[in-house]
Specification:
This protein is 37% helix and 22% strand. The chain is α/β, with parallel strands linked by helices. The chain has one domain: LigB-like (Protocatechuate 4,5-dioxygenase, Chain B, 3-Layer(aba) Sandwich), CATH 3.40.830. Strands 6-3-8-2-9-1-11-10 form an 8-stranded mixed β-sheet, with helices on both faces. Strands 5-4-7 form a 3-stranded mixed β-sheet. Strand 10 and strand 11 form a beta hairpin. It is globular and about 50 Å long. The two termini are 26 Å apart.
Length: 291
Amino acid sequence: MAKIVAGFGTSHTPAIGAALDLGKKDEPYWAPLFKGYEPAKQWMDEVKPDVVIMVYNDHVNAFDFKIIPTFAIGCADEFGIADEGWGARPVPVVKGYPEFASHLVQSLVLDEFDITIVNDMEVDHGLTVPMSLAFGQPDAWPARVIPLSVNVIQYPAPTGNRCYNLGKAIKKAVESWDEDLKVVIFGTGGMSHQIQHERAGLINKPWDTAFLDDLTANPQRLVEMKPLEYLREAGNEAIELVMWLTMRGALGDDAQEVYRFYHVPASSTGVGHIIIETKDFYEERHGKKAA
């Protein structure tokens, strides 16, 4: 059967993509950030997932303010790259897996999650920046991708609890697919940042660090966190971190952190990254019992 083997949490600020695309990754400002992702790229090259489930948010490119689904899954054969106002990123077209995506939709809807089916859409930096950080700059992405867009743009956003339970339902759906697939689920966005008004540029490193700690040490605290705390402590855009809880919910209770990285600044964002392996995959990969 298909299995989720790990979760990959990462920020997705558009400036990271621009730095890569414009050949600036070795400049003094950007070099520490990209160096921090080198172990992640090595990990991904070793794991070689067949499918990526990308939990991300659209930034008013695939969806405008006329229609804003809370949860939407892309079921197309492929997804073009959106022009976000400065030209489409020069990255490969994203190849989907419509049969598997449709299976996920069916399973999730029967588990009472209202999923919007999207058969034609373009993807923006919310999806492509995490792909670049994980896989580098290849001629073609080495894994098929199922985009799962979450509304964190227009109030009300789903709660962390709802997103965590969605992750659990995704795990169940993946494991009911009768094909030997290795799946990595991404949770993207954040960390602390606010891009407007008086608190623009807010970075709360202690809060970000505590969030990373509790993804494995105490995920229940994060599940119970109210939306107002994200806004108050870490800025308006920190609500994107509920998407990391979808990733975490899909990994099981005994998942193990294997890598993390945190860096400021990247534009006006605290950039965080974590890799968490499922218990079974951790023990298989490292030859020892999970803690």
